[in-house]
Design goal:
Bound molecules: adenosine-5'-triphosphate, magnesium ion
Number of domains of chain B: 2
Strand order of the largest sheet of chain B: 6-7-8-3-9-10
Oligomer: heterodimer
Strand content of chain B: 25-35%
CATH architecture of the largest domain in chain B: 3-Layer(aba) Sandwich
Number of strands of chain B: 21
CATH superfamily of the largest domain in chain B: P-loop containing nucleotide triphosphate hydrolases
Distance between the termini of chain B: 20 Å
Strand content of chain A: under 5%
Structural class of chain B: alpha+beta
Order of helices and strands of chain A: HHHHHHHHHHH
Largest sheet of chain A: none
CATH class of the domain at 68-236 in chain A: Mainly Alpha
CATH topology of the largest domain in chain B: Rossmann fold
Radius of gyration of chain B: 24 Å
């Protein structure tokens, strides 16, 4: 936003209104789910926003009750698969983006072009052939069977983000550090890594979100609790009897699933500050 | 502190481009050397070869008498101020300046580092900015931080790559004086790349003029100005640049498109028997004849010319005289203009006269020319035919003595 120069009263009012509207629009569904997760079964059909009786029953059900088995294993799957996929994507993307930003080699544009093409390919058209292939080679319903397609989702965007980020790093600094008395490794460690870290963190978070939020692969390539991630598992929740909707339990699960994401953002907020490369060079 | 010796240095880039071609320079301990030349002539490349960021294709580089071709930058103990200042954006000004010392583990104690940083900061007037990040500093302040980082190290030599090129005129003047003072004070061998005339003339003990990777001449600013080795140096040094007037020498008469001009014996002898020569005349070699005394007039030649227009600058006045160039030298002059990064071929004589002269466009004026100071050049080779090597060497010798005296004076004032 307009960070330089003071805002006039009118501008400030405008921004405030706009921010509030956007926040309301974005957070209302979350608030609704949060409220729903505290409602009792009887309360669910009730049109009121807030529960008439606050209850932990839904949380109890998925954490210690009937749905515990279903939810907790799915939660574990989600965290494991997503973290591994994110880690691999970021490591590979860092190496790749470094090469793209710093070296001149034939096929550079092809790599970037292919990455873009892969990322715009609709997931749904890949999933059926993948389903057959995975069943044939035994990757169906395994962690690896999800990690690989998740890489295809996260790698291209990671490469693009990081390459764009690395291009902005003033690589002169590496040489300056060497002249200042650093070894090549020290120069990289002390002059480049601190500047590259925010980019890597940002990319990691984006990659994590993409993998965490996936539903299509999760539901299509798993069949048991061996690898089923949370978004897919939610669809398998059942009510106490078959006439009851499991809405309350699903809401509670959705809230719990959101927590790691929020924690992650809060944790790395400081690392994501952009504009850290400013000031290295002349005005 | 160290001497630096370049012996027949050659740099060929991977794509085969010869950026530096057989350059030899002896830089004395404590000397301030300037590298100038048009864009792309290899100045930065040469500097980066000295500091170790660019491999040396051929030749030897000696620092303090020791061959360092294969040494890594950090083993050469040189400090460099980069064309982009290359400050570490994630570190404060303090940490930026302390950075080189932090890398030498165990050599400096915490207190020593602190003292040195603060000393440098005082010298560069950065004390109140020590806790700030480079992003929040002005261009001049960033430049000073870069300087600070260079001087705390007690490096054997300073290398500067156009450190002032992005500053505005006023700040540039200020920083120029600052750098000159600092260099004298520390008496550290320095190599300074620039394409700014003023920086070259005011800062350097000696100036090396480069063209397309070749060393054209290395001499004190005065020698370059008064006894240039060739057409390129003559045209490159000086602003406004030297006029090149084509003509033929017959006896003591030089026939030019502006008429016949009488020249001294020395020039006459140098130009004799040549089909055509170029007379190099600086704008200030001319004067308004009507303002000069008889005695003065007799030292040169007077001739009349039509003034096409004039510019009054307050402290001086430039008058322009158009003339028909000779076809035989047109190619030479066009090449020269290209090599010097000049916009176009100038077919006007620039004449500098006193501000009180009343030259208007269209006037026919009587101009006086100090023929003793003009040079004749061979248009084919560019060689200066009238160069007095002896006198030139004397000028450079004087500059060297001046520098020594400066250094001694400073030392005695210190004690
Ligand atoms: N990495 C490189 N690979 C190939 N050629 C290069 C490379 N770096 C520079 N050159 C070439 O070498 C020549 C000299 O470059 P250099 O940077 O030394 O010029 P310069 O004199 O510093 O110019 P400027 O005043 O514009 O900074 C140029 O013609 C340039 O094109
Ligand atoms: Mg340069």
């Amino acid at each position: 936003m307009a960070s330089n120069g003071k805002l006039t009263g009118k501008q400030r009012l405008g921004w405030t209104v706009l921010t509030v509207v956007v926040l309301l629009y974005a957070l209302f569904p979350v608030a609704a789910i949060l409220a729903t997760s505290f409602k009792t079964q009887a309360d669910l059909g009730n049109a009121a926003f807030l529960p008439s009786n606050w209850t932990w029953a839904n949380y109890e059900m998925i954490l210690v009750g009937d749905a515990q088995e279903l939810f907790l294993t799915a939660f574990r799957n989600s965290i494991g698969i997503t973290l591994i996929a994110t880690f691999i994507a970021v490591v590979l993307a860092t190496l790749c983006a470094y090469a793209i930003a710093r070296l001149n080699f034939p096929g550079k544009r092809i790599i970037l072009g292919t990455a873009l093409a892969v990322s715009i390919f609709p997931v749904i058209s890949v999933v059926t052939p993948l389903f057959n292939l995975w069943r044939n080679i035994g990757l169906y319903d395994t962690w690896l069977g999800l990690i690989i397609p998740y890489l295809s989702l996260t790698l291209p965007i990671s490469i693009w983000t990081l390459a764009a980020f690395f291009r902005q790093i003033p690589w002169d600094l590496e040489q300056a550090a060497q002249v200042d008395g650093a070894t090549q490794w020290q120069a990289f460690r002390r002059a480049i890594v601190p500047l590259a870290m925010p980019g890597v963190f940002t990319t990691a978070i984006i990659a994590f979100f993409i993998a965490w939020n996936d539903f299509v692969y999760g539901i299509s390539l798993t069949s048991t609790e061996a690898a089923r991630p949370v978004p897919a598992a939610l669809a398998f929740f059942t009510g106490a009897s078959q006439f009851e909707e499991p809405t309350g339990a699903i809401s509670a699960a959705a809230i719990i699933v959101t927590i790691p994401v929020v924690v992650l953002v809060l944790l790395f907020q400081r690392q994501i500050v952009s504009g850290l490369t400013q000031g290295a060079v002349k005005g | 502190m160290s001497s630096i010796t370049l012996q027949n240095l050659v740099k060929k880039y991977d794509d085969g481009f010869p950026a530096v071609n057989d350059i030899s320079i002896d830089i004395e301990d404590g000397e301030f050397i300037i590298l100038v030349g048009p864009s792309g002539c290899g100045k930065s490349t040469l500097l980066r070869m000295i500091v170790g960021l660019e491999d040396i294709t051929e030749g030897d580089l000696l620092i303090g008498g020791e061959r360092v071709n294969e040494k890594a930058p950090r083993e050469r103990n040189l400090a460099m101020v980069f064309q982009s200042y290359a400050l570490y954006p994630h570190l404060t000004v303090y940490e930026n300046i302390a950075f080189p010392m932090r890398l030498t583990k165990g050599k400096f104690t915490k207190e020593e580092i602190d003292e040195k940083v603060r000393h440098a900061a005082t010298m560069l007037e950065l004390t109140e900015h020590l806790d700030r990040k480079p992003a929040n500093l002005s261009g001049g302040q960033r430049q000073r931080v870069a300087m600070g980082r260079a001087i705390v190290r007690e490096a054997d030599a300073f290398l500067f790559d156009e450190p002032l090129s992005n500053l505005d005129a006023k700040l540039r003047g200020q920083m120029r004086a600052e750098i000159a003072r600092l260099q004298r004070e520390l008496n550290t061998t320095s190599v300074y790349v620039t394409h700014d005339q003023t920086e070259a003339m005011t800062l350097g003990d000696r100036v090396a003029v480069l063209k397309k990777g070749l060393l054209q001449q290395i001499a004190s600013p005065r020698e370059l100005y008064e006894q240039p080795a060739n057409l390129f140096v003559a045209g490159f040094i000086g602003s406004p640049s030297m006029n090149f007037l084509p003509g033929t020498v017959e006896g003591n008469v030089f026939s030019t498109p502006l008429g016949k001009i009488e020249i001294p014996d020395r020039a006459a002898k140098a130009g004799a028997g040549r089909e055509i020569v170029l007379a190099g005349i600086r704008p200030e070699f001319f004067d308004d004849a009507s303002q000069l005394s008889e005695a003065q007039l007799s030292k040169g030649t007077t001739f009349t010319a039509e003034i096409s227009h004039s510019e009054w600058m307050g402290n001086e006045q430039y008058a322009y005289v158009s003339y028909e160039t000779d076809e035989r030298v047109q190619d030479t002059l066009r090449n020269l203009a290209e090599e010097m990064d000049a916009d176009e071929l100038r077919t006007q004589l620039v004449v500098e006269v006193d501000a009180t002269s009343r030259f208007r466009s269209g006037d026919t004026a009587e101009l006086w020319l100090d023929t003793r100071r003009m040079h004749l050049f061979d248009p084919a080779t560019g060689e200066n035919l009238t160069r007095d090597a002896e006198a030139g060497a004397e000028l450079t010798r004087e500059a060297r003595e001046d520098r020594k005296r400066d250094a001694e004076r400073f030392v005695s004032r210190q004690s």
